[in-house]
Structure formats: C-alpha cells, structure tokens
Write a structure and sequence with these properties.
about 300 residues, alpha/beta, Rossmann fold, six-stranded mixed sheet, elongated
Amino acid sequence: MHTVAVLALDQVIPFDLATPIEVFTRTRLPDGRPGYQIRVCAERPEVDAGAFTLRAPWGLDGLRGADTIIVPGTASPLVPPSADVRGALRAAAAGGTRIASICSGTFPLAATGLLDGLRATTHWVAAGRLAAAHPDIDVDPDVLYVDNGQILTSAGAAAGLDLCLHMIRRDYGSAVAADAARLSVMPLEREGGQAQFVVHDHAPTPQGSALEPLLAWLEGNLARDLSLADIAAQAGTSTRTLIRRFREQTGTTPLQWLHRARVRRAQHLLETTDHPVERIAAQVGFGSPTAFRDRFKKTTGVSPHSYRRAFS
C-alpha cells in the first residue's frame, strides 16, 4: 500500500485539499484492497481553510516515510512557506519521495527550489506570476499537468484530479486508474490542456495610445484577408514602424494580435451559435476551414468541434 501525505498549508484551498483525499481513498486494487493510506499533515494542529478551520492529525513528521506528498493550492500563493516546511519538503525529495502540487500549490513547492531548472505548470491565471517570481522554472500555462518523474505539478483544481489519476496509473496500471476515474465521474484522460479554458484577452494598450483606432478597426474587419501591408496602410505608417509600435504597446506583432482576435471571436461563435465550422472560419477571416482548424487547435489545444461540445 502506498502512503500519500497531503500537506495543508495556511489558507489551503478546500477543494484542492479534498481532491487527493477523495480520489486516493476510493482507489481499490483488483482484489478489493485499498491502494493508498492517507495522512493529512500540517505545520500546526489547526489550519485556516477559509470557510472553516482544519484540524490535521499529523504534523510535518507525517511527511517522513510517505511515498507521495501532495501540496494543495493556497489562497496566498506569494507568501512563502516557513523554513520548517521548506526543509521538510527538501528532505523528503532527497529521500526519493514523489512530490506533486495542485493549482497554486506550485508556488510553495517552487519556494523550496525543487522546481528550478524544471518544466512546471499552475493555474493559467497565476502562470505569469509564477514565471516572474521564479525565472529558473520553465512555466507552461497550457497543460493540465507536468510529470518530471519525482516532481509533478498540475494546473487548476480539476487538473489536480487529472494528476491524481495519472499517478494512480503510474502506481497500479491503467485498469485501477480507470476504475478510480469512473468513481470520480471523470475520463481517465481529458482532451487538450488548460489552453482551452484560457480567456484570450489582448494585451492592454495604454489609454490614449495611437494604436487604439487601429485596434478598433482590426476588430471590425476580422473577416477580411488582411496583410501586414494592409494594416500598415490603415495606420498610415511603414510596416517596420507598425511592427515596432505593436511590440512596444501590446507585446506582440500585428498578425499575431489579429490571429488571437480571430480565435477569440471564433470561441464566442462556437459558444453562442450553431453555425457550421466552415461558416465560422469565413466569419472570422480564415482563408479555409483547414487553416481555421489548425490555428484554433494550436491556440486552444482542442478542435473547434471539441470546444463546442465542451462550452456551447
């Protein structure tokens, strides 16, 4: 039987805490035996969980000897864990314990230095903050989870469930993991990553910027087959100057901005209409349905049809 220690930090997010407890507790081996023993651990006997106070049966000593440690998300991700918590996690890693984080739990895990030089993920809303706070980590905001072998990270709360099922499959095989997935009313593998859930807003443009009229014009002309020269002519400038101003004020190029605007419009149409994909491709300015499908999947991680099934 594997031992899983769930580390409850201050301001722990209840859903992130409950997910591994629920999934691992329900996991049964083919002969009916439980697959996991759960320990809920904390630095102090009582932990603030927002709506309630949690009493943890184990202290940090409960991390010792565990096969897996789970670090759930916290509502205060930028507050580093104490030296005792960081030391306990580093000691566990040095002893070969598998350590996984859920959602913003990547932040306290990152504070230990265990993610330096590794690829990691967290909730897409917080990915930029994680990258800024820990430049030595290769932050991937588009995936549901990242498995580096001993150290694993996951995106939002539901992605924590994906990660738990992935670890069960690693421990006991696909049949046991599939049974755990059925009990959780989840597919064993979800299509695409968290990119499909990202709100693809444009980079903010300074108020009063000379680009504001141009961006409004682009939004109103998404269906047109616009070239860089067309956009530059509308702006009354050279293509080189246009690219420079776009990078300075939006952090991207005119054509990249245009592609993102088209995908965002397509998402809205897929969610709110029953128009065929071919019609939507034309409405948002892609030259062919194939080009539209390719760009949409590259941006969101799923096909237009899959996106419509999930969000319409």
